[in-house]
Amino acid sequence: MIAETLSKDFKYSEEAKNAMNTYKIDEKFIKDSIITSGKVDFDRSHAQKNRARTT
User: Fold this and answer.
1) What is the pLDDT of residues 9-44, one digit of tens each?
2) Cα distances (Å, whole numbers) of residue 18 to 26, 34, 35
């Protein structure tokens, strides 16, 4: 899942872009540090549950 996420083009809202600028965070940091170190808690995630309802 992480490899698939990292291969996508990221699109940021203006608010997110402003926050990234304020905190001096670039896309490389997000991809290299935040996403690759993240953990998906499928027990708490509703993404799969919502997807099942729409298909």
Assistant:
1) 888 999 999 999 999 999 888 888 877 777 766 677
2) 11, 18, 19
